[in-house]
Amino acid sequence: MSVQEQDPLDPHNDIFWEGPEAIRKNIAKSRPAITIEDPTQNPETITVEEDPIPSIEESYRLKPPSPPPTADAPAEGPAPNSNTTLKRAAGPCAPNTPVHKEPELSEPDAKKLRETAKAFGFGQEALANQIKVNEATEGFRKLYVGALGPNTTERSLEQYFNQYGKVASCQVIRERDTGMTKGFGFVTMQEPAMCQKVLAQSVHVVDTRTIRVSLTHSTKTYDWKPPNPRRHEEKIELIHEVANIDVREGRVYVGPLPDNVSPNILASHFSQYGIVASTNVSRAVHNTMKKNFGVVSFRETMPVKRVLQNPRHYINEQYVDIALSKFAMETLLSPTTLWMWELAWSINKEDITRYFTQFGAVFRSMHILNPMTGEKKGYGFVDFVDSGNVRKACHGSQNQKCFEVKGQRGCFGRNLPKNLKRDLMYMEDRFGNLLLRQLYQRVPDSGNWGGGRDHQESLQQQGAKTTTCKLPKAMLNVVVGEDGKIAADIARDSKTKISLIKSAPQEETCLFHIVGTPENCKTAQYMMQIKIKEKLAKGNQVRYNR
User: Fold this and answer.
1) Residue pLDDT, tens place only, 311-338
2) Are strands 276-282 and 181-189 parallel, antiparallel or unpaired?
3) Are 379 and 339 a contacting pair, CB within 8 Å?
4) Whole-prediction pTM value?
5) CA nearest 461: which of 518, 499, 514, 513?
6) Cβ atoms within 10 Å, residue 257
7) Widest Cα–Cα separation across the chain
8) Contact (CB, 8 A) for 294 and 266
9) Rounded Cα distance, 426 and 185, in Å
10) Closest CA to 411 of 421, 419, 399, 422
């Protein structure tokens, strides 16, 4: 093949493929031999040639040629491993690694193992497989329990399996971050015979839910022990407590929140508990608490229980509290609130206000009760006008103090005990809104209005008369009004003195004493009737919604 017909893609025809030797070869071809005459010796011609050039047939390699073997190198023996990419020699295991050997059992132990394996249905297996099953089940004592409910804990599992024998250990596997159960766990019985009794029954029901029970075959161990056993027990207690509450509203209140928290951050945090329908954040400048809080609404009520089962929530490097009502969140976050507990049933908000007025002006107070039944819960709060009054009442200490009202002793402090705080957190808006209505209700249930100079002058001209009126409690807001403004106007216009007598909680009516001249008393009664008729007329009007 001529030079013109050579294939240009053939690497043997490319000098750059062959390396620098091809360039030196072409130079050597064009270099002639050098002839030197030495005058000191016999006249003859000495021809000097250049260094030999490697043949073109020798392929070019980047790796240098291996050095020739020396005399000191051993002639026999395995060649050393010169591979620089492998960390170890190729093979099934690393060098100097002990090979796992099957445990050797004595004849009595092997016989006992065969009998136990046969009782559990592993009699046809080889001895090596029986040993593996024995190790995985801790001697045919460890059971796998699956399809657990969200409220099932170690306590409920132990209570159920105790009917078959003594339980050595019990564990429910949970998520490390949220604390929610993964739906399975392990129960280890004291003896293999107890496991046989468990497996002999086909149906197992724990917490009104059918669960799956079988021998565990996994060699993976879940022997995780909580770093704080006491806190772990409190968490189990909390799960049982949340399981017994009735949740009808899929809404939770979260606070206090950092300033950089947005509704999207709330939705991202609480989406791990269920499907979030909506989120909202109320800033401190727009609420009475002067602190940020959020509202998270779920599509279902079950995520609310999952949220309550986690006692601590960490959002943007800050721990927050959870409540089911705005009333609970407002009272928990208010810096002017002082809490009381161990209150007697006879103590009402007037007694509380009268006692704590010694520390400063009181804005409002309440002995918290069940708005549906009227039963008092034994704890309440007093809200001061200034937060400095709270420090004055507590003397700058976080510890609880004692007080005495009507001969009854109670305690007060800045924070509620844990059990009472959870009771307040579990109160939903359907109850909290009723308490808020009572809290912000400005209509007094007792008081005196009128009796000024006009009233005294009218009594000097004519004799005084006292008239008693009985009205329903539902009409107090019509006749008395907010802060008693309507009653004060009636007493001023009629030149009388009106007194509202406080009635018992179970009574449905209230008494008014009107003091003045006979004509003025009739005028006051007539003005009250007009107010009531106007209210009834407005209530009977037909309203049209567009």
Assistant:
1) 788 898 899 999 999 999 989 998 889 9
2) unpaired
3) yes
4) 0.57
5) 518
6) 22
7) 175
8) yes
9) 29
10) 399
